[in-house]
Amino acid sequence: MKKIIYLLALSLIVFTGCKKEEVAPPVEGDSFETLTTYLVSNDLDIPDVINGWIVAPPASEDASTFIGTYDILDIRSAEHFAEGHIEGATNTTLGNILSAAQSASKPILVVCYTGQSASHAVVALKLSGHTSAKVLKWGMSGWNSNFSGPWAGAIGNSADDHSGNWIAAPGSITTTGSFDSPSFTTNATDGAGILKEQVDKMLSGGFKGITNNDVLSNPANYFTNNYWSNDDVSHYGHITGAYRLNPLTLENNEIKGLDPTKTIVTYCWTGQTSSMVTAYLNVIGYNAVSLKFGTNGMIYDSLESHKFVTPTTDLPVVTE
Fold first, then answer.
1. Are 202 and 184 spatial neighbours (Cβ–Cβ below 8 Å)?
2. 32 with 285: CB under 8 angstroms?
């Protein structure tokens, strides 16, 4: 009898030991609230992240000091990196930016072609603990005129071709309502885990941009947010049907003014700030895109500031 009991106990141990570990099902419902509460409590609200995030190229005599201040991560293609890059820069990709940042011992400076993809990267870095990470303003286009093609080819006055969908100054901004929060699925159960998952998801999705012609041709297809001040809107006008949510915070619920059922288009002067906002919105569950090159591509001749100009003094690059 004892032998039978022993064998039964042994078989039970073997059976339980071979049992597959149960995987918790994805969490849905309060994931947005869990994530955004965590972000606010850790000083990672939108205005916190979009603060001190960009640095202009230095004067030529200060280039060496400037370069020595940062660990520079260049996310352009390997081919373009080899054609010329800032001395000491490491070539990586947007998707691998967090891995590349692990070896950094100084503040991180992210470089791309125009400053727009780099802005996505810096949001990921700031939300992942690299709070001093910065974007090189204008990207390599502003560093050396030999690399200014992406910006020089994008400036223009496309609003003139879509005059019916550009409201001239003083504008007539649309009043927004209050919408439900976006819903997304996560395998994590706490704010830190959800944030990591969402940042990884944002990076794997690549840069989220849209052309001004796409938006100006069909503005009703989008929820367009003009990330300007009231004075700027009054001075220049805006895209037909645009809203103006700035400041845009989680803590004060301005975020509720965004419609999660629409594609959120954010635009600014240059597409760099809007890229920051867009990356953040994707992290918290919105379907968001940045209007590439901002108003530099729509009303360039009318702009009195925030205009890209091809550099007249070239800063040094090295080739491979």
1. no
2. yes
What size, in residues, is the chain?
320
pLDDT band at 320 (very low <50, low <70, confident <90, very high): confident
Residues with Cβ within 8 Å of residue 176, at least 6 apart in sequence: 243, 245, 257, 258, 259
Strands 166-167 and 238-239: antiparallel
Dihedral angle sign, alpha carbons of residues 301, 302, 304, 308:
negative
In the DSSP assignment, the letter for residue 247 is S
Q: Which helix (H) or strand (E) holds 183?
A: none
What is the residue-wise DSSP string for 84-137? -B-TT-EE--STTHHHHHTT--S-EEEE-SSSSHHHHHHHHHHTTT-TT-EEET
Cis peptide upstream of residue 247 (ω within 30 degrees of 0): yes
Chain centroid to CA 71: 20
Sheet of 134-136: strand order equals 54-55, 134-136, 108-111, 71-74, 90-91
pTM beyond cutoff 0.85: yes
Tens digits of per-residue pLDDT, 171-217? 999 999 999 999 999 999 999 999 999 999 999 999 999 999 999 99
Give the strand pairing for 209-210 and 71-74.
Answer: unpaired
Backbone angles phi and psi of 190, in degrees to 5 = -125, 165
> Over 80: is that where the pLDDT of 145 sits?
yes
The residue with tokens 């288009």 is 265
Q: What is the pLDDT of residues 166-180, one digit of tens each?
A: 999 999 999 999 999
Q: What pLDDT is recorded for position 29?
A: 53
Distance CA 84, CA 96 (A): 21
